[in-house]
Structure formats: structure tokens, C-alpha cells
Design goal:
Blueprint: E1 4-9, H1 13-24, H2 26-33, E2 37-43, E3 60-61, H3 65-68, E4 75-78, H4 86-95, E5 99-102, H5 105-122, E6 126-127, H6 138-145, E7 151-157, H7 160-172, H8 176-185, H9 194-197, H10 200-214, H11 233-241, E8 244-255, E9 258-269, E10 281-288, E11 292-299, H12 303-319, H13 321-328, E12 347-356, H14 362-372, E13 377-382, E14 396-402, E15 405-406, H15 407-417, E16 428-432
Parallel strand pairs: 1-2, 1-4, 2-3, 4-5, 5-6, 9-16
Antiparallel strand pairs: 7-8, 7-10, 8-9, 10-11, 12-14, 12-15, 12-16, 13-14
């Protein structure tokens, strides 16, 4: 049968994994795709860079145009990172009559609605399973398996690096800094881990899932995003004492006809499935109006899990499934869109931690500020004061759990609390899952 000839742009960790499986398991891939998959061209920056996989002669090129302008290449696998020049490359591929498979979450977060609409206009398709949650087939399930439902909520662990760090801190009682360094040594975290630990990576993936599940295009500026980089071991210990585990959760749910969105470290009850997600794994809970709760879990990153998702899209393109699915995506303007709930109106219980001087009236000052902002306290925990060190009295951690209140009230209170000279550092705040 006529082979599907593909071109790959970018040949890093994921691209190498895709090529290994394509070349090493050609018979299996051919059987499942219904025809051979031929890796015709791979565009890289440096032709002389050492690689751990040998490609057939003539496959490597340092010119993206060799893929864009090749009429025999029907499908492009775009594995570039970032948004520039990735957006321009994607538009060029679509205009050249090629379907595209991509794993670029940043690109789809910022320009997904535009690119999807442009592809539709040209009669082309984009598949992007690998852009969210690595090897978990969450895109296919949201778009296909749950198509008969109105999805009412998504609650997910979408960043394996953060989940690994939180798991190791809790299990081994080590500091954030020590575990982060180990995560970098193991390859779970980049040399610059900012986008993982500050919540940006999870937020980008939440934007993509929100577009698919609710037909609503949102930007990162429309919802609060907090990472795990301000947490200390004391926070995880206190959560454990209270019966919780800390997870970085990305949440999208319909509330009173509006779309509530947020990404933040969150206290999750120990008996809930999300609390049991360990290490670098991801998990997504999807609730539909007909099916109820459904759960998806697996490796959220890594060469072969992500390559698995890319290959699934390639095979779906080869047999025509991806094209049919892409035609039925409900894009902004094609169905009911939801207004995003204002950040200040988001309601939650909250955990607060203060590093306070052990002096009279400190706790009274804290509770007074909370009370004046309409925030009711559910519980307070203060451990015994530590010993004086080098003539200085170290701050005492004070932990407070609130009743349900709004993000707006909480932010107003925080602004006052962080001006108290009796507190050594800004307070740490986490949501409490319900």
C-alpha cells in the first residue's frame, strides 16, 4: 500500500523516541495504521550533533523548507518548543496542504483557537494528544469517548515535575530545594524549572483542556495560577496531620453557569484518588453530566510515554480518525461559550501558614485582619516555639484553616497580613479541595 510519508521538525527527546518506535517497530505500526509510515525528512538545527539513533541516509536536514515544500510529505510532526517561530511554521505547513501532529502545549495554549480555525478553513487537521498529560490519552477521551456528555468539571495533576517534588518531600521529609536538585539530576526537572514549579506548565495544559471540554478560549491572565515554589516541608507535614495530601491541581468547572478556573497547590483528602497519584505521574478526573466521574492516570512526561501519544496521532491520521475528530471539535463561536468567573468570586476553603515572631498579640493581629475581611477560621495549629539560635529567636509557624470564603476576600486580607512586621515572610496559601 502507498506509504504515509511524514516529516518531523525537531528531534529532541520526544522526536528521538518517535523515530525509535517508527523504525524499530515498523511492522506493528504498519499493521495498526493500515499502511507503512515512512519517515522521509527530519529537520534539526545542527546536522553534526551526536544522536543516539541512526536515521537512514538523506533523512536529516537543517532546512524546515525541505519539509514544507516537499509535495510527497502529507503529514508533519511538529515537535518544536515555544511559540515563535513555531506559530509561523505551523501556518506554513497547513498552507502547504499538510496535516500536522504537535506536542507543543505553549503554542496551542496561546494560539490554539486561531490555528484550529485556520486548519479548518484549509481543509486540514491538527492532532495534539501529546500536548497534555504525556502518555495519558486525555484529548481522545474528552473529544471522542465523552462526546455524548456536557463535561461539568476537570480536576487534574498535569505536571509530573511538581508531583514528583511534592511526593518526595512528603515521603522522605526533605526540603523543597534538596528534592528539586534531585529532580534535576534525574531528568524530571529542567536546569531552569520555573515553568514547572510556578504552575505555568499546568496552566497551559488547562487552557487546552478548557477549549476542548467547554468550547471556550481562555488566556492565562484570566485565572489565578500559583506554583509549589513557596512551599516548605512544614506545610506538607501540617497537611498530613490534618488528613490531607498536597497536590498541584488544575481545575476547570462550571459553577452557576460560569467557568471557574485555577491552578494552585491544593490540600486533597487522603482517601481521594488524586491523593494517591505518586511521583512523576499525572491524573485527570473528568465529570460528565451523563457518565459521572471518570479517571485517567499514567506517565505525564518522558521520552517514550510522550512518543506514544505522538505515534497514536500519526496512526490516527493514517487511518483518517484524527481528521474526523478534528472536524467535530467545538471551537469558539461554534457553540455555547462560557463566561469566565471573575477571580475574586472563586470560593474555597483555604490553608494559611505564617512564620510569626513568638510575641504577644501576634495571633490576635492575624485573626483580626481575617475577621475584618469576612473570613471565618475553622482551626488554628501552633507548635511549640523552637529553641533560640545564635541569640535570635526563630519564627514560629502558625497554621490556619478557614471556612469557605472568596478569593477576593482572601487577597485583601493577605495584602494587610503581609504588612505586619511580626511576620517574617509572606503568608503561604493553598486551596482545600472539596
Amino acid at each position: 500500500m502507498k506509504p504515509l510519508k511524514i516529516g518531523m521538525i525537531g528531534f529532541g527527546t520526544v522526536g528521538g523516541g518517535v523515530a525509535k518506535i517508527l523504525l524499530g517497530e515498523a511492522e506493528r505500526i504498519t499493521r495498526r495504521a493500515g499502511r507503512p509510515i515512512e519517515l522521509r525528512r527530519v529537520a534539526v538545527r545542527d546536522l553534526n550533533k551526536a544522536r543516539d539513533i541512526d536515521l537512514p541516509p538523506g533523512v536529516l536536514t537543517d532546512r524546515i523548507a525541505d519539509i514544507v515544500d516537499d509535495p510527497e510529505i502529507e503529514l508533519a510532526v511538529q515537535l518544536m518548543g515555544g511559540t515563535d517561530p513555531a506559530r509561523e511554521v505551523m501556518l506554513s505547513l497547513l498552507s502547504a496542504g499538510k496535516d500536522v501532529v504537535t506536542a507543543n502545549k505553549a503554542l496551542l495554549c496561546e494560539h490554539g483557537a486561531e490555528l484550529f480555525a485556520h486548519a479548518r478553513e484549509l481543509g486540514r487537521s491538527i492532532a495534539f494528544e501529546a500536548s497534555v498529560a504525556g502518555g495519558i490519552p486525555i484529548i481522545a477521551n474528552v473529544c471522542c469517548a465523552l462526546a455524548g456528555n456536557q463535561i461539568t468539571s476537570l480536576s487534574a495533576i498535569l505536571n509530573g515535575t511538581s508531583n514528583f517534588i511534592l511526593t518526595e518531600m512528603a515521603d522522605k521529609e526533605e526540603s523543597y530545594g534538596d528534592v528539586l536538585r534531585r529532580a534535576q539530576e534525574l531528568g524530571y526537572a529542567e536546569a531552569d524549572p520555573a515553568m514547572d514549579v510556578d504552575g505555568t506548565d499546568a496552566a497551559q495544559k488547562l487552557v487546552i483542556l478548557t477549549l476542548l471540554a467547554f468550547g471556550t478560549a481562555v488566556s492565562l491572565s484570566q485565572f489565578p495560577c500559583t506554583g509549589i515554589d513557596s512551599l516548605e516541608l512544614d506545610d506538607l507535614k501540617c497537611a498530613d496531620e490534618l488528613g490531607y495530601v498536597v497536590k498541584l491541581l488544575a481545575v476547570a468547572r462550571l459553577h452557576d453557569g460560569k467557568l471557574e478556573l485555577h491552578v494552585s497547590p491544593t490540600l486533597v483528602r487522603k482517601h481521594l484518588p488524586l491523593a494517591d497519584v505518586q511521583g512523576a505521574f499525572n491524573a485527570v478526573k473528568v465529570t460528565g453530566d451523563a457518565v459521572g466521574e471518570t479517571w485517567f492516570s499514567g506517565q505525564g512526561a518522558g521520552q517514550l510515554p510522550t512518543a506514544s501519544a505522538v505515534l497514536a496521532d500519526i496512526i490516527d491520521m493514517a487511518v483518517g480518525r484524527a481528521q474526523l475528530t478534528f472536524k467535530t471539535l467545538v471551537l469558539p463561536g461554534e457553540g455555547a461559550e462560557y463566561e469566565v468567573q471573575p477571580i475574586d468570586d472563586i470560593v474555597s476553603k483555604f490553608y494559611l501558614r505564617f512564620n510569626a515572631l513568638d510575641r504577644p498579640h501576634v495571633l490576635a493581629d492575624i485573626t483580626d485582619i481575617l475577621g475584618r475581611n469576612g473570613i471565618s477560621i475553622a482551626s488554628v495549629v501552633q507548635h511549640e516555639s523552637p529553641e533560640v539560635q545564635n541569640g535570635k529567636e526563630p519564627p514560629v509557624p502558625v497554621f490556619i484553616m478557614t471556612h469557605r470564603t472568596t478569593e477576593g476576600k482572601m487577597r485583601a486580607a493577605e495584602a494587610e497580613l503581609n504588612r505586619l512586621d511580626s511576620l517574617h515572610s509572606p503568608c503561604v496559601r493553598m486551596s482545600v479541595a472539596e
